[in-house]
Amino acid sequence: MTLQRRRAARTRPLRLPRQRGFAIAGAVFLVVILGTLGLYLARITAQNQAGSALDVNGVRAYHAARAGIEWAAFQVLAPAGAPDCPATTTLALPADGTLAAFTVTVSCSSVVLAEAGSDIRSYQIISRACAPGPCTAGQPPVDYVDRQVEATLVRR
C-alpha cells in the first residue's frame, strides 16, 4: 500500500450499522398524540360554545318572561276601564326581534282584600317563556330553555 492509500483509509469515517425504522415509529407516536390532543381541544371548544349559546338563550327567555309580566301588569293597571286580570294567555312576541323564538304564557289570578272599608285587589301574575317551541312537560330537546317569572301587584 502506498502512503496515500493509508492516509485515505485512516480518514474515512467509520460506518455504523444502519438503524432502520426508529424515526418513523417516533413520528407515528407524535402524530397520534397530537391528533388526540387536537380532537380533545375541538370537543372542549364545541361544548363551551354550546354552553354559551344556552346561557344567552336563558337570558333571552328571562327577558321574554319579563315582557309577559309587563304585558299583564299593563292589562291590570291600565287607566281605562275596570282592572281585570287576563286569563291564561299565550303571547306572540314581535317576529323581527331576538325574542321571536320564545313562546310566552301568562296566567293571572286576583284576590279582593277588604281593609277598613276600601277594596284592595292583589294580582298574582305568572309568566313562563320557553324555546324552541311551546313549553313541554316531558323530555325537552337539548337546546331547550325555560324561564318562569312571578310578580304580585296590589291595586287600590
Structure description:
With 156 residues, the chain is an alpha+beta fold. The protein has a 4-stranded antiparallel β-sheet. The protein is rod-shaped and about 135 Å long. The N and C termini lie far apart (126 Å). The model has no long low-confidence stretch (mean pLDDT 83).
Write a brief structural summary:
By secondary structure, this protein is an alpha+beta fold. Helix content is 42%, strand content 26%. The chain has helices at residues 3-11, 22-77; strands spanning 89-91, 103-115, 118-131, 145-155.
Write the layout of secondary structure elements.
Layout: H1 3-11, H2 22-77, E1 89-91, E2 103-115, E3 118-131, E4 145-155
Main beta-sheet strand count, sense and barrel state: 4 strands, antiparallel
Beta strands, count: 4
Structural class: alpha+beta
**How many distinct domains?**
1
Order of helices and strands: HHEEEE
Discrete helix count? 2
Note poorly predicted spans: none
Return Rg in Å: 37 Å
Tertiary shape: rod-shaped
What is the overall pLDDT average?
A: 83
